[in-house]
Design goal:
Elements (H helix, E strand, L loop, with lengths): L3 E4 L9 H10 L4 E7 L11 H10 L3 E7 L7 H6 L4 E5 L6 H11 L2 E6 L17 E5 L14 H14 L5 E5 L7 H7 L3 E4 L1 H4 L4 H9 L2
The protein binds D-xylitol-5-phosphate (DX5) and zinc ion.
D-xylitol-5-phosphate binds next to strand 2, strand 8 and helix 7.
Amino acid sequence: MQRIVAPSMLSADFGHLDRDTRMIDRSAAEWVHIDVMDGVFVPNISFGFPVLKAIRKATSKFLDVHLMIVSPERYVERFVEAGADLVTFHLEAAEDPAGCIARIRRAGAKVGVSIKPATPVEALRGVLPAVDLVLVMSVEPGFGGQSFIEGSLEKIRRLRALVRELGLDTVIEVDGGISAANAREVFEAGAEVLVAGSAVFKAGDPEAEIRRILGA
Ligand code: DX5
Ligand code: ZN
């Protein structure tokens, strides 16, 4: 299976957004993870369209946009216009998941759906055939720098089994508390894309840290 690291810009230095984005652009990371928070779905507010557009200008890498917002269906087209290659919304936040998926596709981006730690993998069964990716949250969404919830490993294994059972090729991405210390077990549980925020941006040598996660 492929291995991809998606550094989360939430942990970047916003005073040097261009510099930090260009660093990722030079690195072995194929994706850039962008966390959008509305202060309602999660108890934190991050950034929106102008910041996404600035990141888009500084990199040609795949922009992986993680929406932690209520009623995502209201905004998905604007995220695609601002540069998203993939738009992931939370299953718990969408009033009409099928409609949201259709809108993202119509706008020309790949589609992801995410579940919080308390949401079971079985809740995805209905939407799975319609999406390209599932993002499994391994911390409560809202903040970087939290510890990986160990129970997530079993969830990733169950999701990998469900994807196989349904004969799909859904990409599994995992977000929260990932570092070179646990990347190997997360990949081995069945994930292909690992998000890493603080592990990358707080490292003395972020590019080396990305390589360590990829080679874990
Ligand atoms: C949290 C975000 C994550 C966050 C991960 O709600 O979805 O993408 O940036 O940060 P770390 O890797 O520090 O747990
Ligand atoms: Zn995220």
